[in-house]
Amino acid sequence: MPVDRLAARVGSTPFFAYDRAMLTRRIQLLRDTLPAGVSISYAVKANPMPAVVQHLSGLVDAFDVASGLELRTALDTPMPAARVSFAGPGKTDAELAQAVAAGVTIEMESETEAERVVAAGRRLGIRPRVAVRINPDFTVKGSGMRLGGGPQQFGIDAERVPALLKELVHADVDFLGFHVFAGSQNLRAESICEAQRQTVELMMRLADESPLPVRYLNVGGGFGIPYFPKDEPLDLAAVAANLRALVEGSIRPALPDARVVVELGRFIVGECGVYVTRVVDRKESRGRTYLVVDGGLHHQLAASGNFGQVIRRNYPLAIGNRWAEEARETVTVVGCLCTPLDLLGDNVTLPPAEIGDLVVIFQAGAYGLTASPTAFLGHPAPAEVLV
Predict the structure, then answer these.
(1) Which of 113, 271, 349, 368 has the smallest number of Cβ neighbours within 10 A?
(2) Alpha-carbon dihedral of residues 81, 82, 88, 94, nearest 10 degrees?
(3) What is the C-alpha to C-alpha distance for residues 281 and 349, in angstroms, rounded to an integer?
(4) What pLDDT sits at residue 162?
(5) pTM to 2 decimals?
(6) Active site members
(7) Strand 343-350 to strand 317-319: parallel, antiparallel, or no bridges (unpaired)?
(8) What pLDDT score does 305 carry?
(9) Are 178 and 164 in contact (CB under 8 A)?
(10) Domains of the chain, start order
(11) Are the C-beta atoms of residues 62 and 79 closer than 8 Å to each other?
(12) With a cut of 50, which residues of the chain have pLDDT below it?
């Protein structure tokens, strides 16, 4: 749908729009490429919009959630509770009780959390479904964010897991297996492959030592998407071939009935969304042209550079109602907030734009609205639509 028609349909700017057909094609790409029998779990935190989660519930095999609200969003879909996992540090007693009562799999992140899960099950008279999230003894190179290796708030240190498993033997829990998620936003296939190899080796070692049967292996994900001009798309075929070799050569011979899960968020939704904002002012300042828009970092923090915490590069953007026009003007696109950090496009070459034109930021399907400081300066929240 042309962006001007889409804007008219939404009725106001700014807004996020997500493409259901692209989401469907993305899952089909994974089905066609990943090894048969490997389950696809969607990490709801990447984009928890209920309509997106509802659509994906009929396409993926499982959901991973990280809060009570995400849990309720997942449980409001046709996805069976047994195919929902709940990860993340700092789960409250109320969230744990909700998860136990719902029958989802709780990815335990510490020994004390394990004790609280057992206690919640005892209070409710329900046997909790649990897995152990492992903080591995290796790190992943090339990831945008590392969530494993060294000291971490995520997971139980690998060397401490055997002792916990011995304790769980005497607890009334339904132990399923292990979860390792060591890094995110990685475009280097060999780095992901090496992480998979080390993850499976670690899981197989712990499974061999476990006094409890292992039926579930979540090997994480971390598949990245390109955001910037020099980024090369991930070689998904190479990653899939490596995973196939690990499943057939290591996992199936030792654990023939274990469910193997790949957990993905950004890779599924990131390229399926856009953020659309309208030019409300055009100004010149000492030789530089600024397009001031009605959106900004309060909706799309990542595109602005995360409050200056990372080296900022431009996300791909365009003037949505001037697709056919030549890009012949260099401008800086800024948001409406009272901070110089509210920068959406720095010295970008675009077709000449006027007040009322639509700026489209691509790769906006993941970690957009809910990962941004929406209350900053009190501007209205943007709309979200699934089209």
Answers:
(1) 349
(2) 50
(3) 18
(4) 96
(5) 0.94
(6) 338
(7) unpaired
(8) 86
(9) no
(10) 48-264 (3.20.20.10), 271-386 (2.40.37.10)
(11) yes
(12) none
> C-alpha angle 196/202/208, rounded to 5°?
130
Tell me the per-residue pLDDT of 170-214, one tens digit each, with 9 for 90 and over. Answer: 999 999 999 998 778 999 999 999 999 999 999 999 999 999 999
What is the predicted pLDDT for the residue at 363?
Answer: 97
Give the pLDDT confidence score for residue 141 in this predicted structure: 65
Provide the token pair at 251. Answer: 């996992």
**Predicted pLDDT at 138:** 78
pLDDT at 182: 78
